[in-house]
DNA sequence: CTGAAAGCGCTAACAT
DNA sequence: ATGTTAGCGCTTTCAG
């Protein structure tokens, strides 16, 4: 009825409680005979070590705090799924924290630390320097996912967003587009800034100025408005780069269904992320892929790297390919 | 540098360690003077109680194990988001477990129990009776989300799937459809069975037999094939009910883009869930809403209900409305 | 290699 | 109302 403890197993096996502990501690020295005896008793009682009690001594809770803000951009569920599965392979599990906005990040981080997590992945929000110090002091590694901060001292994993922006510009130039527009994401984010900079820099090199620029804030409703604005005038863009797929999907509804333009003949569209939806025939969106698996793998590596909590912050950028689909025309020539 | 304990606070405040504990234990009796003194010292040191150490005594880890299998059906991220936010309000947090298939559910449940969780939400998979007994024995309440099992003794929260199926049938009948088809989800699930039964029963009452039935297994690729099968013959359905939105989205790509039919003129489509995507203009899908917030609220209520671990299993069904959009025609008359 | 003993940070009697 | 004491289940010295 009650919970089975190592004491119970010890009694049944006729050994000391510490012997039981050793059998379940990888790398401890126990004879095979002892191990067999203990395992037998443990199986009979259905014993499993209490991770929380163990954490009190070892300092390892095998819990990783994961903070996300919104899951309606399909990229984040995807990351969560991979992260969760990968962590599990190493015997860790993600404790989820939804942070609606940046304001209560201090409170959220405090809650995370209450659970004595072994690491933190911030997949959506930023963090105050004060909290950063707390984590450093507690020796808890923190990894920013899909964003980085110039000034603060955090490890970070992102795609190579600048280069991604460049690739999109090159595609538009090669296809002979003249009226090229950009729909920006949330301006506070590094992803937004880098993608735009790569895009605009490359256009400039080819002597092309942005025909239009709107802000969609990575948000569905705002992107609808931004798209309507963009096509309100007589002459409209013939190619648009959206800072992520989510906004491109939203815009496609407006462009095709509401305004009656044809993609890619009237206007070419490119997104960023390559979420599963992008490959669906109904969208068929050309986009820059964020290599989710590799990004997660790098994040975990950073998290588990022995001295990553104290080491100099590392920013890992993972290259992602441009995936050509039917929302863009073939390059000419 | 090191971690701050209640001992440190006690020393600084010049009180006993248990006094500190009491100040941070809601409902314990402490004088205001004592509370102030302790809080001051605690704030100065940045002290917060260690949840894991506390759990060792109280038996409450404030962790809820949440098991999901796939997150590509947008319904689950939505649930996760709401569940996470709601749990947080009560000082609980979800520990995520991705279970790829049912086979390793025993192992997954064992891992969950290692963390001494205060409850379990199974949002996607089933569970063996053996594990059920373990949870019962440990006094850990389990709630099935969006599925239920006749035989096993679990609490469950679902939408009223049977009634939802009825509503769709009534809509098709009222709109005068004659060749009505159904695309089934994964046959093992109660959601699939109930939705189909409500649908078919209502059609039968009106003297209508199913024109076609395919299986999409709640899966993208299989739904593409199922849809192509369905429209392979000369005469094709003029109305199709998909057991969830996810499959309807997949099918819409085939029906509109690949086969060139028009929705709803050539064929009406209805889904189930009302995920955010369903209201996007590009889909604009008529569907039965699963009231996510209310379903989550009920699940949490079941989880926290004092004696829910021992009580008779309760199955809560939440009614959801039919949301009319442009993938169906207006009822005639 | 094994057992005895100490103690991780905390709460909950038990005293006063 | 506060301090003292005894553990929660476990790992990890320390002896032998």
Along the chain, the helix and strand elements of chain A come as: HHHHEHEHEHEEHEHEHEHEEHEE
Q: What structural class do you assign from the helix and strand content of chain A? A: alpha/beta
CATH topology of the largest domain in chain A: Rossmann fold
- Average the pLDDT over all residues of chain A and give the rounded result: 92
- What summary fits the major beta sheet of chain A? 6 strands, parallel
> What's the count of strands of chain A?
12
- Lateral arrangement of strands in the main beta sheet of chain A: 2-1-3-4-5-11
What is the helix tally of chain A? 12
**SS strand fraction of chain A:** 15-25%
CATH homology superfamily of the largest domain in chain A: Response regulator
Q: Outline of chain A, from the CA principal axes?
A: elongated
Helicity of chain A, in percent?
Answer: 40-55%
The low-confidence runs of chain A, each spanning 5 or more residues with pLDDT under 50, are none
Distance between the termini of chain A: 76 Å
Quick structural overview:
The structure is a homodimer of 333-residue chains. Chain A has 333 residues and is an alpha/beta fold. Chain A has 12 helices and 12 strands.
What do you see in this structure?
The structure is a homodimer of 333-residue chains. With 333 residues, chain A is an alpha/beta fold. Chain A has helices spanning 6-13, 17-23, 32-45, 51-58, 75-89, 105-114, 129-138, 161-174, 190-205, 220-230, 245-258, 292-304; strands at residues 63-68, 93-98, 119-122, 142-145, 155-159, 180-184, 212-215, 239-242, 268-273, 286-289, 315-318, 322-323. Chain A has three domains: 6-49, no CATH class; 61-159 and 292-318, Response regulator (Rossmann fold), CATH 3.40.50.2300; 161-289, 3-Layer(aba) Sandwich (Rossmann fold), CATH 3.40.50. Helices cover 42% and strands 16% of the residues of chain A. In chain A, the strands form two sheets. A six-stranded parallel β-sheet of chain A has the order 2-1-3-4-5-11, with helices on both faces. Chain A has a six-stranded mixed β-sheet with strand order 7-6-8-9-10-12, sandwiched between helices. In chain A, α5 links the parallel β1 and β2. In chain A, α1 packs across α2 and α5 packs across α12 (292-304). The longest helix of chain A is centred in the middle third of the chain and has 16 residues, at 190-205. The first copy, chain A, is elongated. The N and C termini of chain A lie far apart (76 Å). Chains A and B meet through α4, α5, β2, α6 and α7 of A and α4, α5, β2, α6 and α7 of B. Chain A binds a DNA duplex (16 and 16 nucleotides) through α2 and α4.
